[in-house]
Write a structure and sequence with these properties.
By secondary structure, this protein is of the alpha+beta class. The chain is 38% helix and 20% strand. The strands form five sheets. The chain has an eight-stranded mixed β-sheet. It has a three-stranded antiparallel β-sheet with strand order 5-7-6. The chain has a three-stranded mixed β-sheet with strand order 8-14-15, with no helix packed on it. α1 crosses α2 and α3 packs antiparallel against α4. The N and C termini lie far apart (56 Å).
Amino acid sequence: MRPIDRIRLDPAQVRRELELRGFEAPLDRIIESDRTVRELRTQVETLQAERNRASKGGPPSDEVKARMREIGERIKSIDAELGPLEAQLQDDLLWIPNVIDPAVPPGKGETENVEVRRDPVRDLGFPAKPHWEIGEALGILDIPRGAKLSGSRFYMLRGPGAALQRALIAWMIDLKVARGFTEVYPPFVTKRETLVATGQLPHFDANLYRDAQDDLWLIPTAEPQLVAMHRDEVFTPDQLPRRYVAYTACFRREHMSAGRDVRGIKRGHQFDKVEMVVHCLPEDSPRELELLRELAVEVLEKLGLQARVVERCTGDLGFNSLRGYDVETWGPGANEWLEVSSVSNVGDFQAERSNIKVRRDPKAKAELVHNLNASGLALPRLMIAVLESYQQADGSVVIPDVVRPYMGGRERIGAGELAPL
């Protein structure tokens, strides 16, 4: 259902959902603007009907001609008022988030998410070092030179460190392709209308990078590309579900609190990610949500890493999602659970903005598809977990078995392999 229809039907419910999510939106202005727009449109329709009746009454008298001129001027005046008002209304409606699935647990923030799985943390048998110490000692992670080139929150991977990240990406994509996903390599820049159509704009404007001259935006994830590639298209049921997987670099302005996550590569303005997106029939989206969660966890299981899964509560749900999970893995050196995937059922929210539909029968009315997305997985934190979980007492890092074929059979990264940084 369109946001304006939801507001007309039950504005109090929309207000409650804004409060549950902790979001602000110009709801009162939308209600007032919608009322004014509808009143003005009714006036125009009434005036047009009067003009149509007069045109059918034979040669008009001077009095009728004068009235027609008056009607024409009045319609022109109302149209001039309607244009900006309707444009403002459409802009305001973009700030209304998705509905909340009734199954979503209540809560004000991430501390109230509901844990659905937690693997026991494995003891390494010796004091675990954090990834930045491991990477620096092996010569595979260079944070100072990343900052020298591009500023804070950038880093460089080197030698087998860069190869390990590339191997993880290729392995994760192959894993999804084997499960029936179609690989896509999309552009890393996109248009404003793509980000509006998929719900990233205007809500996340402050977190995105763009080229103002051409109004092109660096993608925050492959999700908008994989959704909007079917913008203004109509599927048939046999064409669904469409499951896509893509590797991209991602670009986000991370607004960190002072002193938070200042060491290492946990938070950066550029990072690599393998993303999954699904277009499906509405009745299939709950099942597809569980599939995406399963596929995100599968990566950790095959890597021999611990998994923690939480269902996001109402206050941590996000703008686009109607229901979702976070998948985390343990970083023994960082001594914390690291989010590596956000799994979301978006319902028809993006499809309504993007005009993506399915027609079940040639004579039937087209209806909106459902969209889902999940990281499969995000690389910086996965790299942290691999380096910290596979570190050895002698300072080397063992390569996980499943990744070795993608690194020419290499079994470990040892000290002294690279020249000092």
